[in-house]
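Study this chain:
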Amino acid sequence: MKVGVLALQGAFARHAAVLTDVGVAPIEVRTPEHLSGVDALVMPGGESTTMSMLLDIAELRQPLAERLAEGLPVFGTCAGMILLASSVADGRSDQESLAAIDMDVRRNGYGRQIDSFEADVNVGGGGLPGWDTPFRGVFIRAPVVERVGDGIEVLASVDDNPVLCRQGHVMVASFHPELTADRRIHELFVESA
């Protein structure tokens, strides 16, 4: 399987390193041609408004929207979650999301950089195989999920806020799993892609 990492801005190199650790040779996606050659995609954290503009500059928005509509498995973290959500609060007025997952998010919903934190994330309530211990989530200017649609599977919450969700071929996290030594969330994505 060929897994791409959107490499326009943000923590794409960290995601690529984690994918390598879990046995996948990542492909950096910067052009529509790169995108056409992948079977799954990771959309990293970074600055969502900048990433949104860079999608347009790289002429990737339309091809990405088409691939997502065709069922391309995708995992978006932090800014990636924002770009994939159906609605974004506190974004720029011209910021356009891809609406690939039925949820509403608020940019920087947990606060500014100084409000960043770590928290234990119990994936599947600890009931999924391999998830008997929590994942340590790193939340940096993280989005808050304000609404989830009926088809959303909430895989984990922190303080009653969904932080890891899945709908069909789309998985999103409001935190940065690539910033820890724990590879389970990337393994979950690769196994389900």
